[in-house]
Amino acid sequence: MYYQSIEPLFSNSRSSRLNSFFVNLASIYRFVGRTFRNAVLPPYETKEILRQSYQIGVRTFALVGFTAFIAGIVFTRQSRPSLQEFGAESWLPSLVSIAIVRSLGPLITGLICAGRVGSSIGAELSSMKVTEQIDAMEVSGTKPFHYLVVSRVTAAAVMVPILVIYADVIALLGSFVATNYFSQTSFALYWTQALSSLTLLDVISSVGKGVLYGLAIGLVSCYTGYNSGGGTVGVGKAANTAVVTSMFMIFILDLLSLQIIEFFRGT
User: Fold this and answer.
1) 265 Cβ contact partners less than 8 Å away, ≥ 6 residues apart
2) What's the rounded Cα separation, in Å, for the pair 102 and 87?
3) What are phi and psi of 42, to 5 degrees?
4) Between the CA of residue 69 and those of 143, 169, 185, what are the distances in Å?
5) Which pLDDT value is given to residue 13?
6) Cα–Cα–Cα angle for 95, 100, 104, rounded to 5 degrees
7) How far apart are CA 149 and CA 228, in angstroms?
8) What whole-number percentage of the chain has pLDDT above 90?
9) 120, 151, 153, 177 - which has most CB atoms within 10 Å?
10) pLDDT digits (tens, 9 = 90+) for 184-243
11) Which of 198-202's residues contact partners 24+ apart within 8 Å by CB, and which partners?
């Protein structure tokens, strides 16, 4: 009798969680569709897009540049002994440039932007939601979704690929510093070897990953902030969820894009 009475409770709990999952999935689908639809429809918040581009891009240049420079040095230092064992140290510029442009540069940039930009957007929109500023904008006739969400997603999709290109160049510069320290390679020779091993597909895929990462960071952060609740506790929760989910999405997109790129490279 005891097991018979407790079984419906577990059944109802599973059903409730399943319903909640599909409700959240539908909410995310509507949010993403609404964002892309409003991105091509007026009004266009040009000033807010430019302001968010400055916040997302320009104010992240120093952090991305420093991290990419150190990553280029470390990756070169770690790769050099292995190539020396096979007498292939001359391949070091080519190896490093391919690794940085194809994967390391976009991944580092995406993770940094997820941590800095994702938490900022999530906390900002969540605090506006908690203090009912978004409701006040709707009452006043302003379209908050255009102003708050579309502008941030657009700025992230534009600025993150620019940061990826910047990170690639700075990481290669760090690699040159490490290479020149050990083998006295000239600047012209290093860059000739590094760039000659890259293809147009490598550059396009690197920039394309930046666009995907920017969209993922913008959409995830705006969704968690715009739909947050729970008072002041919800602000911290929204910022944390934005960062964790954005990083998770970046790794998923990196894996999927790798499969697609390898397909085109194979053909």
Assistant:
1) 201
2) 25
3) -70, 160
4) 41, 9, 18
5) 64
6) 130
7) 14
8) 54
9) 153
10) 888 888 899 889 989 999 999 999 999 999 999 999 999 999 888 777 778 888 899 999
11) 198/97, 198/98, 198/101, 201/261, 201/264, 201/265, 202/98, 202/101, 202/102
Distance of CA 127 to the CA centre of its chain: 22
Q: CA 258 → CA 176, 185, 204, 245, 263, distances in Å?
A: 26, 32, 13, 20, 8
The two structure tokens encoding residue 85 = 């064992």
**What are the b/e assignments for 6-35, b being 16+ CB within 10 Å?**
eeeeeeeeeeeeeeeeeeeeeeeeebeeeb
Residues 121-147, mean pLDDT to the nearest whole number: 85
Instruction: Tell how far CA 126 is from the center of its chain.
Output: 20
Q: Is 92 within 8 Å of 179 (Cβ atoms)?
A: yes
pLDDT band at 267 (very low <50, low <70, confident <90, very high): low
Q: In whole angstroms, what is the distance from residue 51 CA to residue 208 CA? A: 23
Euclidean distance between CA atoms 126 and 130, whole angstroms: 6
Alpha helices in 184-197 (DSSP H): 187-196
**Cα–Cα distance measured from residue 2 to residue 166, given in angstroms and rounded to the nearest whole number:** 65
Q: What 3-state class would DSSP assign to 190?
A: helix
Could you tell me the two tokens for 29?
């689908």
AA identity, residue 254: D
Gap between the terminal Cα atoms of the chain: 64
Task: Identify the residue with better confidence: 249 or 13.
Answer: 249
Sign of CA dihedral 55, 158, 205, 170: negative
